[in-house]
Amino acid sequence: MSKGNMGGWMHRASPASFEVSDSHLKKTLGVKEMLALGVGTIVSTAIFTLPGIVAANYAGPAVALSFVVAAIVSGMVAFAYAEFASALPFAGSAYSWLNVVFGEVFGWIAGWALLAEYFIAVAFVASGWSANFKVFLSTFHVELPKALAGSFAAGNGGVVDILSLLAMLLVAVLLWFGTKNTALVENFLVVGKVIVILIFIAVGLTAIHPNNYVPFIPEAKPGTNFGGLNGIIKGAAEIFLAYIGFDSIAANSAEAKNPQKTMPRGIIGSLAMATALFVAVSLVLVGMFHYTTYANDAAPAATALIKAGHVYTSNLLSVVALAGMFTAIIGMMLAGSRLIYAFGRDGLLPAGLGKLNKKGLPNVALATLTIIAMLVGSVFSFTELSGLISAGTLIAFIMVSLGIYALRSREGKDIPVPGFKMPLYPVLPALAAAGAAFIFWNLAPMAKIAAGIWFLFGLLVYGAYGFWHSNLKKDKD
Predict the structure, then answer these.
(1) What share of the chain is helix, strand, coil (3-state, %, to 5)?
(2) Which of 241, 303, 381, 384 has its Cβ near the most Cβ atoms within 10 Å?
(3) pTM summary value
(4) What are the tens digits of pLDDT across the range 354-387?
């Protein structure tokens, strides 16, 4: 631990201390598992919903460019993540890294930002899974009692969304028994999902009408966010939610085999694969039917297949959409539980959260995440809170990108030289931070306000508990 002169909150954690703390976590995840985790989390419900929604509301046929813009910003940040994960393969990703290079309070801010992502994203995706599963059941004329079909927050007579709760519980049980078995399930579901996406692309190509691409970039409509360059940028901000899943890989770097190679390949590889699938699906979707067809349609891919006469493929896509959302819940719960473990490990939250069981699993943190996500799903409306997922993560992305400058000055000294280094240094880290800040600025105002409230609450938690119980402060005292 380096000794500063501005109080315990400015002290930086020693890489060696994290290495010792995380040494009991089982290293069971290789490149294949990390790719499956990344693709499973990134290519979830978004690929079946966002292309149509963004095309109709913002970009028209240029929705593919919105995905590319979001991918470029994500890709630059992913390079920073890959270098950090290779040099500092600790549980907690950005929280642990910034704790080492900037100090505890900066690590706390980044970690608190990501914690919002995990709490809300787990509940949000589980709710989406529940909604799609209820539609699937309706094709067999099965309908749940209204009291069990939705949370009381929705205001439609529901008491609890039982399917959402069951989805979270099932994933928690899988993770409770270890990451190896969960990774096998994840691998199987991801392979199936990618195959069906490729089937959609192949079938959709037979129904393309080139005139649907004209004009490719619609003229901007005054007083709205539709069309022109502004529409593409606003669409990218909306889409960015789909790309943040690569952080879930980094959060599990302490459980990676040979992390210096595994982490960069997993992070960058999964992002590249996801981007290719997003762009291909977007181009096929707007080519099959005019983009206005998909206005207010939560399942545009299935709609397009049905309208084109491919009902069987549409039903298959719906089933795989359910599997895709399930893999996203796995990725988010796995990453979120490791972040909570890291907070407990370092004393910033109650120490019990940082305990490992006899198998080296942070199951107390997992149980905590599951319970809180269930409460979030029962109390809050996801429509209003979904933007907070992107807002919090973008703040962490900015801090990680700028953190590369502090990391480089210590590589080969008290931090090992990583197996991967962010290219075009020192320009690219600044561009990555600026890109993430630009996307943040283009989020909906409510998302930015909600992020501010969350961070204020986080600083209060740190001031009231974390600062006084911090292991760094105790070591200093």
Answers:
(1) 75, 0, 25
(2) 241
(3) 0.82
(4) 888 888 888 999 999 999 888 877 766 555 555 5
